[in-house]
Amino acid sequence: MVGGYRAPDWFRDAKFGIWAHWSAQCVPEVGDWYARSMYLQGHGHYDHHVKTYGHPSKVGFMEIQNRWKAEHWQPEELMDLYVKAGAKYFVALANHHDNFDAYDSKYHGWNSVRVGPRRDIVGIWAKAPPAGPALRRQQPFGARLALAAAGLRL
Prior knowledge:
This protein is of the alpha/beta class. The chain has helices spanning about 10-15, 35, 45-50, 60-65, 75-85, 120-125, and strands spanning about 20, 90-95, 140-145. The protein is about 30% helix and about 10% strand. The chain has a three-stranded parallel sheet, with helices on one face. The radius of gyration is 17 Å and the shape is globular.
């Protein structure tokens, strides 16, 4: 952390929050870093991918991304559950190591509005009730970028 940085009071006082680490890497249901390890021969994700979907040269991560539909996703009910569980803040995954944006990105088309669910996942999370949009219900909302894991530094 940068010298002199101080976490906000709400974060230090919160004690419990929810982070939704949810994007296309969840489709195979075998763990994180799937977009990378599905291409590594000898890795369990590679073996799973070949057995389940076919060789990655024919069925790559773009095809996995398009299988992520979010058709059963109920963000309003989930947010209500998180608040009832005592969560004092919520963070949505905005970008995973695969550099896929889970929002309506103006930077490139590799995003959830054009690929996969065809919905602005982060934007919907931010507006989900139970008591109105996240920022109006006194619950801090954040979006996480996992760019460092992809070798990018801001």
